[in-house]
Automatic annotation (TrEMBL):
InterPro entries: HTH_17. Pfam families: HTH_17 (PF12728). The lineage of its organism: Bacteria, Bacillati, Cyanobacteriota, Cyanophyceae, Nostocales. It comes from the Bacteria. This is Helix-turn-helix domain-containing protein. It comes from Nostoc linckia z7. Residues 10-52 form the Helix-turn-helix domain.
Length: 63
C-alpha cells in the first residue's frame, strides 16, 4: 500500500528504506535528497528516495 502513494512523509520514507528520519533530514539539508516542506513536516516522492539510495550504493552520482 505504501508504494501506491504519490508522496511520503519522513516516517513512511524511513520505514520503507530502513534509514532514520534524522539521516533523511540530513540528506535533505545537504541537497542529496529532494523533498518539499509542507507545514511542519517534509514530503518525499518515492522516485526521489530511490534515486537517493542508488547514489548511496554507487549506482549513480548525486546531481
Amino acid at each position: 500500500m505504501l508504494w501506491n502513494k504519490l508522496v511520503w512523509n519522513l516516517e513512511e520514507a524511513a520505514a520503507a528504506t530502513g534509514y532514520s528520519r534524522y539521516r533523511l533530514r540530513q540528506a535533505i539539508a545537504t541537497g542529496n535528497l529532494r523533498a518539499q516542506k509542507v507545514g511542519r513536516g517534509w514530503k518525499v516522492r518515492p522516485q526521489d528516495l530511490r534515486e537517493y539510495t542508488k547514489c548511496l550504493f554507487g549506482d549513480k552520482e548525486y546531481v
